[in-house]
Specification:
Keywords: Hydrolase. This is Alpha/beta hydrolase. It comes from Streptomyces colonosanans. GO terms for molecular function: monoacylglycerol lipase activity. By secondary structure, the chain is α/β, with parallel strands linked by helices. The protein has one domain: Alpha/Beta hydrolase fold, catalytic domain (Rossmann fold, 3-Layer(aba) Sandwich), CATH 3.40.50.1820. It contains eleven helices and nine strands. A nine-stranded mixed beta sheet has the order 1-2-3-5-4-6-7-8-9, sandwiched between helices. Strand 2 and strand 3 form a beta hairpin. It is globular and about 50 Å long. The protein starts with 16 loop residues before the first strand and ends in a 10-residue tail after the last helix. The N terminus and C terminus are likely disordered.
């Protein structure tokens, strides 16, 4: 069986544990033990009973908190949860050390199978967009709609800002970078990340910056932080080079779910030029372009992303839930 095939895995030993959450008011964080992996899952109180489920998947180096600006705006539309991928946020590394796109996709599938929440409205950003694309392609029964924000899909000419990610995938580079940057403060690192990921870093509030610094300080203390980053970066590079029916663009063509694509005109990591190719590849797609947004439009322009998702629901006739927020 190909390494990209994701057979259903019986998910047992689901042990939810509620713990204090660092993030927006009303959010909860619980730990869910599955076969071979433990995932931290962030959720909010449902706006009302009977809402369809949604799952949000973050990008490389991110966490479930990346969706904390968007999730409240969709409270009346979906029953939302955001997952920390293995090795990121509050999720420990996977037992098998598999940080490939397929490995992350398998973790998402295991959770959805265990929670019996499918089909869900599936959201993904960057690496999470590649993961969500693979999930939607191989397990269409789990995906109701697909919303991708700057998905990490293969490019012939990569953005200059994405070159460090590619270098990080080279064995030994992560350890060299760690030594080179050992004197950098958490504030310096966060400013660098925000300059790379935001179209306008000035949109970050002082509170948001402080929270990001605290989170960076916490992650740098984790013994597996750089390993998770390097191996996941390697997973993206490997996915970019995979051809045939298991290539990400070929899998995009197999996605049956109605798809919302969101691209930022100031994205330094995923080329704005790929937006048109993505719109052609996903068979039932809608494209939202935000000229001033960077790589994380759901954090910079959550209102516009929420409005586009509402339009997706209206266009696809998803019961009448879109009317609840109008």
């Amino acid at each position: 069986m190909s390494s990209t095939e994701l057979p259903p895995v019986p998910a047992t030993n689901v042990l939810p544990k509620v713990s204090p959450v660092r993030g927006e008011d009303g959010e909860r964080l619980r730990s869910v033990r599955l076969s071979g992996v433990t995932l931290a899952v962030r959720s909010r109180p449902s706006g009302r009973e009977g809402l369809p489920p949604a799952l949000y998947v973050h990008g490389l180096g991110g966490s479930s908190q990346n969706w904390s600006a968007l999730m409240p705006l969709l409270d009346g539309l979906v029953d939302g949860e955001a997952v920390d991928l293995p090795g990121f946020g509050d999720s420990p590394p996977p037992d098998d050390g598999d940080y490939s796109v397929t490995g992350h996709a398998r973790a998402v599938i295991r959770y959805l199978d265990a929670a019996e929440r499918g089909p869900v409205h599936l959201f993904g950003n960057s690496l999470g967009g590649a993961v969500a694309t693979r999930v939607a392609a191989v397990r269409p029964d789990l995906v109701r709609t697909l919303s991708l924000v700057s998905p990490a899909l293969p490019e012939v000419f990569v953005q200059r800002g994405a070159i460090p990610t590619g270098l990080l995938a080279v064995p030994g580079v992560a350890s060299l970078f760690t030594r080179y940057t050992k004197d950098w403060t958490a504030e310096q690192r966060v400013r660098g990340v925000m300059a790379l990921c935001y179209g306008d870093p000035g949109r970050v509030t002082p509170e948001g910056f402080r929270n990001a610094v605290e989170e960076m300080e916490r992650r740098l203390r984790l013994p597996y932080f750089w390993d998770a980053m390097a191996r996941s970066a390697r997973g993206i590079v490997n996915a970019y080079t995979l051809g045939g029916q298991h290539g990400l663009w070929r899998q995009a063509e197999r996605v049956l779910a109605p798809t919302l694509l969101v691209y930022g005109g100031r994205d330094q990591l995923v080329s704005f030029r790929t937006a048109r190719r993505a719109a052609r590849s996903f068979r039932d797609s809608r494209l939202l372009t935000l000229p001033d947004a960077g790589h994380v439009a759901m954090m910079e322009y959550p209102d516009q992303v929420a409005a586009a998702f509402r339009q997706l629901l209206e266009a696809t006739g998803e019961s009448g839930i879109a009317d609840t927020g109008s």
